[in-house]
Structures are given as structure tokens and as C-alpha cells.
Amino acid sequence: MAENENKGIPIPDVIDPPESMSVTLCVPKNRDHLAAFFGALYSLTEWNSWQQNGTTDGKELAAVWWRYFLSWNRNMTDIECEDGMGKCCVDPQIIKRINPTTGQVEQSSDGGSTWTPASDGWPTVIVQPVPPVTSGVAATKCDAATNVSGQVQVWIDHGISNFDTATTLLEFGLAAIAAIAAAVLAVLTDGLTIPLIAPTMAALGAALAAVWALGKTAFQDYWTTEIKDDILCAAYCNIGADGSFTDAQFSAFWNKVNSQLPPSPAKMLFMGFLSSVGSAGLNAMAASGMSADSDCGDCDCFSTCGHDWNIVANTPNYFGTLVERGEGFMIVQTDVINTNGLYYQWLWSGNADNCCYVTWEVIEGEANFNGMNAAPCGSAFNSGLSNPLGPGCFNQMQPQGSGPYTIKYTFTPCP
Fold first, then answer.
1. Cα separation, 144 vs 56, whole angstroms
2. CATH architecture of 310-412
């Protein structure tokens, strides 16, 4: 009997301790070894695996271990357990970075030797469509452009404060994305995404690294009043009459800003910001409703000849409606019949000696177009109008037609 009592696992002093603990260990990656390991664990749930002492201790111990066996989390990983078991089943330390080439957030579990995309990379938001600024929010395209300028200032302020709160480039990058959200706050909701294409993210990644290296003082000093005024005027000169941007107008605004702002990592980051929000985000900024009755009189939108030509005012629009104005051109349509039964346009440079070499093209309603009258340079307002033989140096243009038509005027300096 004494011999049988010594066989099996010794009986513990306490059959069912009131406290438990978690144990992690490594095992050989081999089917036979795993079978032996699992079998050894399972044997603890069998009463006859314990020493027999003439009591029910073995049965009670088997019940205790059956309870623990059922609580076993059977998830297994392929984590290596070599090097003296020093790394045995310990979760590796994860470090993260912004890839300066792709702009994506990456992580490494081997101290930075290899990098993989992080599952919890950039936060995501969506831009909701909003009505243009003239839809009950403000009255003019200047108000909308001033709203854009105000939201740009929000972005700048966040960028400056990020230097005080971030301790790593990654933290600075995440804060920069949050600054984008703040700049278009009026139209952001949680849980959805602005799709940032790979080139945009690459540009943002490179810019973030460069700005982080630049430092707070240089970033702050870059944003002079002149630079912010250039951004305001670029918005004003390219925004639509209803206070919103089409994709083409957004592209024109982006290119104008890119050509005017002096080189700097701060500029790189700002251009990446604009690319990330696109026309939808810019329209959101324009419709933020912060401005009313703004003044954009200092914005000289077009420095080329013809930029100060205008349609002669009349009610109703007997002398045409401006469709589009750009560098060196105007597109004007007429659809209001005059009192004499004809359709007119009338453009005036504002000064007898303010002249341009003008060419024209009827782009709609050519069948209704009867001919062009023009006034040679030096003519007083409402004088000198006659039918020219072709393009020339003029200060007034006055076509007529039997029905609606649209003309594109192109202006260059007089020879």
C-alpha cells in the first residue's frame, strides 16, 4: 500500500488554492512534442494521475485541474524562443515611424531592421458636401476667399502648437493630420475617409520630416502677412462667383499658390495639406461662414492686358453677362434682347488710353452673330465705334446679333 501511495503526482498541501496566476512558456514546434505536452497537461485532470493516499484527494485535484484546463487559451504564435529563452513568448516592443518616402505610418518589431504598414495608421475623416458661401452664409466671393484665409490661419496655428506637444516625428505627423481636420472642421464626421492617394501621402511624409527638422521658430516665421495675403488673393482670383471652387478652379488656385510662395518645408507641408483636402475641403473652408462684407480690393487678380476691362453696366443685362475671366481673356454671353430687338455686348477698358490688342471668337450662337464694332485706342467712352476689318488695338468692343451668342475675347499688349 505504501508503494502505491508513492506513485503519481504528489498531493499538494492545499487542494484548491483561492488565488490563481497566468503562466507563459515556449514549447518545441513539432507535432509529437505538442502531443506529449498537451497529454501531460490533460493528465492533471485524471484522478489516478495523483498519488493514492486512501482519501478523495486525487478526485478533488482532478476536478480543480479540469476547471483550469477549460480556461486554457489555446491560441499559439510562431514567436521564436531561442537565445536562451530570453525572448520566450514576450510580446515584442513595437516602434513606429512615418516613412519619408511613402508618407505612410509603419511599425517594426525588430528594433527597426524591418518595417511593415501599421494597422492603426493615419486617422480618417470625410468631407461632407456643403452649400456655397452665397447660400445664406455670406454675400460675396471675397467673403468666401476670406473664409479660406481664416481656416488657413487655423491650420497654421495648429502647426505651430504641434511643436510644443509632439516629442517625435510620428506624434508631429498625427497632429498635422488633426490640423487638417481642424481647418475643415465644418464638414468633418467621424468614421469615414478622405482618400489620400499615394503621391499625396508621399509628399506629406517628406514634408513632415522636413518641417520637423526645420523647427518651430522657422516654421512660424515663414508665415508672413505677405504670404497669407498671397493665399487670400489666390483664392479670391480663382473662386467662382457663387463662392465655391470647381475641380478646375481648385487646380488653378493650387498652382497659383505653388508658384507664388517661396520655397520652404513649410510650403511643402501646406501644399500637401491642400492636396489632401481637394476641392471639397477647400469649399468647406470657403463656406465656414466666418466672414461677411470682406474687402479684396488689394487683390490684382490678372496682371495681363485686359484684366481691368468690364462689361458696361445696364439693367437688365443688355450688354452681356460675364461667364469666365482668366489670364488675358474674358468669356461673355448675351441673352437679353435690347429695346431695338437686337442682342448686344459692350466691353470698356475704363480709360481712353487703356488699350489692348483684342481678338475674338464666337463660341456659341454663331448663326445669331451679325458683326463686331470696336473703338480704336484713344477714343472716348461711347465714341469711335465702327466695324473693324479684324483684330486690333481697341478700348471698347460692341458686337451685335439677332439672337443669343457667346464670345471669347483674348487680350494682349498693343504692338
1. 86
2. Sandwich (2.60)
| pLDDT the model gives residue 285 | 82
Residue 288 near residue 151, CB atoms below 8 Å: yes
Per-range mean pLDDT, top range of 64-73, 133-142, 189-198: 64-73
Which H or E run includes 286?
A: helix 265-286
Angle between helices 265-286 and 198-214 (to 10 degrees): 120
Q: Can you tell me the distance from the alpha carbon of 191 to that of 294, in angstroms, rounded to the nearest whole number?
A: 35
Residues 367-392 pLDDT 10s? 999 999 999 999 999 999 999 889 99
Closest listed residue to residue 251, CA positions, set 259, 242, 243: 259
Pairwise CA distance, residues 66 & 74, whole Å = 15
> In this structure, what C-alpha cell is assigned to residue 320?
452681356
Domain ranges for the chain: 2-70, 125-286, 310-412
**Using alpha carbons only, how large is the chain's radius of gyration in Å?**
38
Rounded CA separation 169/98 (Å): 7
- DSSP 8-class letter at 50: B
Which residues are CB-contacts of 194 (< 8 A; sequence separation ≥ 6)?
124, 125, 126, 127, 276, 277, 278, 281
The residues with which 189 forms a beta bridge, in sequence order, are 126
Residue tagged 521564436 (cell numbers): 80
Task: Say if CB 297 and CB 140 are below 8 A apart.
Answer: no
**Grid coordinates in use for 114?**
524591418
Report percent pLDDT > 90 for the chain: 24
Euclidean distance between CA atoms 11 and 57, whole angstroms: 7
Helix, strand, coil percent content, the chain, rounded in steps of 5: 35, 15, 45
The reported pLDDT for the residue numbered 189 is 40
Q: Are 349 and 356 in contact (CB under 8 A)?
A: yes
How many Å apart are CA 306 and CA 302, to the nearest integer?
Answer: 8
Q: Quick one: pLDDT at residue 128? A: 47
178 vs 189: CA distance, rounded Å: 13
Give the number of C-alpha atoms closer than 13 A to the C-alpha of residue 169, restricted to the C-beta side. 21
